[in-house]
Amino acid sequence: MLSRRSFIRASGGAAAMAALPATVARAKAAAPELVAREYAVQLLPPDYPETSVWGYDGQAPGPEIRVMQGDRIARRFVNRLPQASSVHWHGLRAENAMDGVSGLTQDAVPPGESFDYDLAAEDAGTFWYHSHNRSAEQVARGLYGPLIVDEPTPPDVDRDVTLMLDDWRVDPKTGQITQDFDAPHDLSHGGRLGNFISTNGEAAYQLPVRRNERLRLRIVNAANARLFTLGIQGLDGWLMAYDGMPVTSPEPMPETLTLGPGQRVDLFVDVIAEEGEEALLGRIDQSKGYVQAAFPVSGRASANRRPAPAPLPRNRTPDLAGLADAATLRLEMSGGAMGSMREAIWKGSSRNADELMENGQFWAFNGLVGMTETPLARLSLGQVARMTVVNDTVFPHAMHLHGMHFRVLAQDGTPGPLRDTLLTARGETHEIVFAADNPGRWAFHCHMLSHAASGMMTWIEVTA
Ligand code: C2O
Ligand code: CU
After folding, report:
1. The model scores a pTM over 0.90
2. Which of 437, 323, 319, 322 is nearest to 380 (CA)?
């Protein structure tokens, strides 16, 4: 048998010599810190005062975390906030213990303390990280950032650009984030909508480009509640991925594209605006168009456009073999203003609408308000589940499943693209299917964070 000693001696040679110190160094080096604290940034246009945010590493949004597919993401989260917090890695199909959901996968990290996150980045794609404790307040204050996992072979684009869209609710006189995080009107209606919309924390995001340049735009909706309906101008391209997962063949960019909170898309776009013009990513709000990001064009990248792109390589996601005898689940959403919810179960006992309202609770899943002792469903590892999601409310919702991506079935039963967040409009019913291939306790909630805080939060357990 080889002892460690004989192994080192026996293998000898330059390769082993070179490998050894690196291993030792890696074992010693502590993970880089990700420090959450309060600081001031120039969020609003320059004629406004600085805004005090809660954020990561002195930035808003937080710093880009970027790794190669297959690598690990290791960060020592240091909490210098006045509140307990935790970090969730939205869309990563990683280890449950590292999922960062306070009260479900870990205790919230108290002020002054730290937590070591270390998780595998198995899927290449566009993800994001954000606070998962008192999220309706903490994400609104700025606790989020981009998380990019690179494909081992870089796709053929000239530039790779992440655009994090957010809206903030600020007092225009003081320039400060308003502290009405529990406003009953927001909780019971469309959530906390802002009055200042940013791209990467800027009011007027601009990126100079060249004609015929191909950009990869990774667009993340980091807003608490706002839907972004997007269109492009002076750009032409393809939709390459939803929620971090590549589509099987690039889809021509539709006229408009709506992203619910938490959702992402990857676009490949070619700059077709003339030199001296501006290409735009815009948003449509109550049938008016607004610039969300501007790309002034000068010079040319090449004489002609590139040919249509090849699809991004697929991630190693499970197939849905066994769909025919899938476990059937149902999630019925009720409540909210103008809803018909008369009573529901909260903290183990039945309450009428007034009692719920007094406690800031407005929504229910299957008649249950907020987190419960027992999960919505218990699935065994590898089981395929098919869930009917009924939106019996007059508001849209963005249902996010942690730990596993799902597919939405079309009317005819064909599975659609992989997603981690389902945007459902008032009155809609969807069927989603997923393979329960990741053991643990997984949060399943509305990503309109005021809704999650006022009832729309549950969990699914996958047992090994
Ligand atoms: Cu993006 Cu449960 O979170
Ligand atoms: Cu909702």
Report:
1. yes
2. 437
